[in-house]
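Dear Dr. K.,

Following up on our conversation at the group meeting, I've run the structure prediction for Barstar family protein from Limnobaculum allomyrinae. I'm pasting the input sequence below exactly as I used it, so you can double-check it against your construct before we proceed with anything downstream. Let me know if the numbering doesn't match what you have in your notebook.
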Amino acid sequence: MRVEKTIILNLSDINDIDSLYKELALLFGFPDFFGRNVDAVIDCIFGVRYPEEGMTKINISKDGCLALKIKNFSNAPDIVKETIISIIEFVNYKYQFKEMNPAILLHLTK
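The predicted structure tokens came back this morning:
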């Protein structure tokens, strides 16, 4: 796996799940009809390897990966930290289910 793109998510101003969803939608370029819930986030991020679906403006190849660098992780509310970990874990699980390598690498910083 090679990192093809890096996205930086700064959690310093994210205090709740709704603001997390809004920031992820901006960073990844989710479509306007994005449902603002955990399932919708998973579906959209899963689309990084499927540009034809139009679920995200960030795209990588079928064998590449995306590094999600998260700043100020340790200071974020527990619910925000748990939600991010769950989202990425499930996205990568879906890729493994399709017999593909995980697509998202997490880089957590203070």
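Two things stood out to me. The CA atoms of residues 18 and 36 lie 7 Å apart. The chain has a mean pLDDT of 96.

Best regards,
J.T.
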